[in-house]
Amino acid sequence: AAMSIVARLNHFMISGMLGFGQGFMPVCGFNYGAGKFQRVRESFFFCLKVAVIFLAAVGLAMFVLSRQIITCFRREDLEVIAIGTRALRLQCVCLPLTAATIMANMLTQSIGLSWQASLLATLRQGLCLIPLIFILPRFLGILGLQAAQPLADVVAALVCAPILVPVLRDIRFKCQREGEA
């Protein structure tokens, strides 16, 4: 019950970023297609900053109020409140990392890098989370279950970095060529 509450709260927090990222995609795709690579860079970094700041602020607020938030859902069950509070706090600590993964996914989709976009889209909830759900509880018990999603977010961000850096480097190179033309 606690993990279900935390998963729904997490989805609620992430949904705003998905919508924000989908607003970024047409701007990015149009400018990339038009050869306006500097605009692609600027819009990506602007959206990344906004997303990180937004998720950090939401994460901080939810971290501070986590016990009260979980209590709203299961007032009478102290065990659910305790488990959910820790899980929500762990999730809130890693929340800003999710912004980078989401924005990298939206960038790669927008500029036609399909395999990179597909990999980034499946990292967080699939390739990282599913194995961790099976592995961590065996060694850490309930803490492993509570930490699976936050750790999946960390691993997804770490995998995202070597995909995103060459893409941004290529866009920067195109910006330099754009400036020469």
Classification by helices and strands = mainly alpha
Molecular shape = elongated
Q: Could you tell me the strand content as a percent range? A: under 5%
User: How would you characterize the largest beta sheet?
Assistant: none
- How large, in whole angstroms, is the Cα Rg? 18 Å
The separation of the N and C termini measures 59 Å
Count, helices: 6
Question: What is the mean pLDDT?
Answer: 93
Give the low-confidence spans: none
Counted beta strands: 0
Helix content bin:
over 70%
The ordered H/E elements are: HHHHHH
Q: How would you characterize the overall build of this protein?
A:
It contains 6 helices and no strands. It has helices at 2-33, 37-64, 66-73, 78-110, 114-140, 142-180. The protein starts with a helix and ends with a helix. 35% of the residues are buried. With 181 residues, the chain is an all-alpha fold. The mean pLDDT is 93.
Short description:
With 181 residues, this protein is mainly alpha-helical. It contains 6 helices and no strands.
What layout of secondary structure does this protein have?
Elements: H1 2-33, H2 37-64, H3 66-73, H4 78-110, H5 114-140, H6 142-180
Helix pairs in contact: 1-2, 1-4, 2-4, 2-6, 3-4, 4-5, 4-6, 5-6
